[in-house]
Amino acid sequence: MLMAIRDRAQGVLAWVIVSLLIIPFALWGINSYFSATADTGVAEINGEEITDRILSQAMRQQGERLRQVYGQNFDPDMLNNKAVRLEVLNRLVNEEVVLQSVRDAGFVLGNAQLNAEIRAIPAFQVDGKFDQQQYQQALRNRGESRASFEANFRRSLVPAQLYNGIERTGILTQTELKELERLRGQKRDVSLIKLEVAKVAPLKVVSGQAVSDYYKANQARYMAPEQVNLDYIELKLEDFLKDAAVSADDVLARYEQSQSDYGVEEERRASHILVTVDSDASEDELAAAKSKIEDVAKRLRNGGDFARLAKKYSDDPGSAGDGGDLGFFGRGVMDSAFEEAAFNLKQDQTSAPVRSEFGFHLIRLTEVRGASFKPFDQVSDQIEMALAREKAELLLYEVSESLNNLAFENPESLAVAAEELGLIVKQTGFISRSSKEGIAAFPAVIEAAFSEEVLETKNNSEVIELEANGFVVVRVREHKPAQVMTLDDVRDQVVANIKENHARDQIAKQGRVLLVSASSVGVNAAARKLGLEARSEKALARGQTGVDPVVLRAVFAMSYPQPDKPSVSSVALANGDIVVIQLDGLEDGNLDSLADEQIQPLQQTMLRAFAQLEVTSMITGRRAKAEVRIKSDNL
Fold first, then answer.
1. Is the pLDDT of residue 298 over 70?
2. What would the 3-class secondary structure string for 170-182 be?
3. pTM for this prediction
C-alpha cells in the first residue's frame, strides 16, 4: 500500500504541481513567494513588535500550565477563543513594557550570575548538583541550542532584578503584622441549619399544561446543538510503518555513522577558578582581571591548594563552593577555548590562564572517563525501528503534501484525492462542537469543520496535523443547524426540571422564613419551631477543611455579633440547598502566640503580597506611558 501511495504522489500530478510552482518563483522571486507566510504582528510596544509566533508559543505554554493544573479534566477548547488569546497577549505586552523599562534603567545580568542561575535549575542537576551532560541533554530534548536558551533565559532574568529590588525594599511594620495575624488567625464559632432540596417531598403529578408551558418558556434550554457529518481522509504513521522495510546494510551503516548515540564519548572532569571580565571590558578592566588570575596561578605554583583558592578567589558562584568542580562534560558543551584547554591537559595538570567569553580561567583536569559504546548486536533492533520510523515519517509527510494539494485543487469532493492516492474516505457521523470521539477529539478538526471555508463555502479543509503523527483532511457531508428539540423528545427532562425547580422554590421559601425567625430569636429557637436542629461548629479557621468553601466564605463575611441581636446570614449552595448561619462568637488571632519560626513565613508572605501590589501598580503606570497598539484583527 505504501509504495502505491508514494507512486501516485510522484506521478504526473506531481510534475504539474512543480511546473505551477516554477511560475511564481520565476516572476516574483522566492522572497515574495514566501511573503504570504510572514510572521504577523499582533501588538506593538514603543515600536517593538510581538508577533503571532511569539503569541502562539505563549499559548502553548499556557496550555501546558492548564494541563498540569486540570490533569485529565483539561479541555483544549478553553484555549480556543479570542478572549484567552487577548489575556495571554496582554501578559506579553506587560512583560515587554517591564523589559524595556529595566533596559532603559541600565539593568544588566553578568555572565557569572547567569551561570549561577542556570546551575541552580533542578532539571540540569544530577543528585542535587549541576551536571553538564544533563544540561546538554535537556536542551537537546527541547530542541534548543545552548546559545538560544541562555539568551532567552538572560532576557527573562533581567526583569527579575527589578521585582527582587521591589520585594527586598518592602517595609512591614509591627502594627501591620499584628493586624494581619489578627485577621488571618481569627477563629469563629457558628451554628448552622442546612435545608436540603433532596428532602423535599417531590411533586407527584405534573400536568400536561404545566409541561407545555414550561417547555415554551424555556426552549433555549432544550436546543439540539449544531452538528455536522464529515467526510474525511486520515493518514496515520502506523499505516506507513507496516511497509517501511529496512535492510541489514542500512542498519549497520547507521550504527557506524552514529556510534556516539549508543554510548558516551570521552568525558573529562575539571575544576576551574574564574575571574570574570566582560567581552567589551576596557583595557584597565582587562589588565586587572589578568593580573588577578596570574596572581592565583602563582599561588598554585607555590603549592597552594586548588580547591581552597577556588573557594576564595573564583567568581563562579555555581562551582566555587565545590572547590571549582564542574563535573564531567564532553565535547561541544563548554566554551570552545575552555574545551580546547581542558581536552589538552593530562590528569592532575593545571592550565595556564585561559580566556573565554566569561573571563579568565585556571583549569585543572581531575578525572578522565573513557569512551564506551554498546555493541551492534545490542542496538540493532533499536536502530532498525528508528530507521523504519524515519522512512515512514518521510513518506507520511510526502503523501500529506500530495493530499493537501489534491484536496485544494478539487475542493468540492475528497473522492479525487482518495482515488489518486489509493486511500479511503470515511465518515464521522454527526458531531457537535463539544464532541470528543475519534478525530473530533482534536480541537483543530472541530475548528476547521465549523469554519466559514468548510461549513459555509463547502470546500475541503487544509490538511490538519494531529497529535501522535497523523494528518486528516475533512469536508462537510451533512449539516444540521442548532434547533429546538421537540417536546416529545425532551418531555422527561422537562418534567424533571419542573420537579427540581419546585423543590428549590420550597427550600428557598423555607430559608427566607427561617432567616427572618433566626434574626429575631436566634438560629436554635427558630430551628426548634420547624422541628429542626442546628449544628454547632467551633473554632472555624479561614482555611478550614471539611467545610463547604461557599459556607466558609459566608461565615467570615458576617458582621460581629451584638449582645442584643444575633448575627445571622444565609447562603445558597450550587445544588439549591440553603444554609442559615448564626455567628456565635469569635477569637482574633494573636501575633504573640506565634513562635519565631511561624512569624518569619508570615512576614515573607505579607511582604510578597505588598510587593506584588507595587509591581502591578508599576506595570500599570509604565504601560499607561508606553505607546501600546493591540492589533485585534490579527488575533
1. yes
2. CCCCHHHHHHHHH
3. 0.54
